[in-house]
């Protein structure tokens, strides 16, 4: 299926076509004899992008269709998460090891790495035993067939505009909440909304415009900062499940806390710049 030109402002049919491309790409990635960690990561990215496109089409396709297909895409991606999460934690821990010289701290981190390696192996085994990839591809194939039947060529552009403004408003509100309480849950929700905003901008705005390029770049960098913060939260929780008598634990916790504070300062600064435009004006900036 052809993708749209970068300079064009798409209608609902073009957003649908891009959604279908993401689902097709996820299927191609998973329909192999051996599904590697990298393929799982790639498939999940395609499905997240598909769900962002779907959010833009919520009013165009109707609530019932939106709810059904959003659940189908979410449920197809969910079994793949445990493998990817274990892989990301291992990578996060490896990065921490590179900056840690204390023998006691390194001993605890290597103990955690062994546990994470086992968790990753178990996640891979469970994926195979439950035949999860086959179930996911079957569900995605059915969803793809249903979504191909959507006829959206005559949908008014205002429906996409309203959907995009709603996504921007929701992401901006998540920023306000995260700035206010700074809990891991609020920061993680903010990251999810920023990722949806990034992909929906990519799907519905003319990519050749400077303001669009700037927003995409800012949203991508912000999501990376918030993603690293979330990975550190999960890693800290995993370290707490190890030997409670380990004397190096408080020092490692302080290192993680300091890194998180630095990440959050950068994220909030970027968030303030990204969301300086009010929702009512964002469409004029991006589309006009």
Structural notes for this entry:
With 288 residues, this protein is mainly alpha-helical. It has one domain (12-287): Alpha solenoid (CHAD domain), CATH 1.40.20. It is 80% helix and 0% strand. The chain contains twelve helices and no strands. It has helices at 12-30, 37-56, 58-61, 63-77, 81-98, 103-129, 132-148, 157-181, 184-204, 210-239, 249-274, 279-287. Helix 1 runs antiparallel to helix 7 (132-148), helix 8 packs antiparallel against helix 9 and helix 9 packs antiparallel against helix 10. The chain is flat and about 65 Å long. It starts with 11 loop residues before the first helix and ends with a helix.
Features:
288 residues
Q: How would you summarize what this structure contains?
A:
With 288 residues, the chain is mainly α.
> Helix count?
12
SSE arrangement, N to C:
HHHHHHHHHHHH
CATH topology: CHAD domain
* Percent helix range: over 70%
Shape: flat
Strand content: under 5%
**Runs with pLDDT <50, length 5+?**
none
Outline the biggest β-sheet: none
Number of strands: 0
Could you state the CATH homologous superfamily?
CHAD domain
Question: Taking Cα atoms only, what radius of gyration do you get, to the nearest Å?
Answer: 21 Å
Judging by the overall fold, what is the CATH architecture? Answer: Alpha solenoid
Structural class: mainly alpha
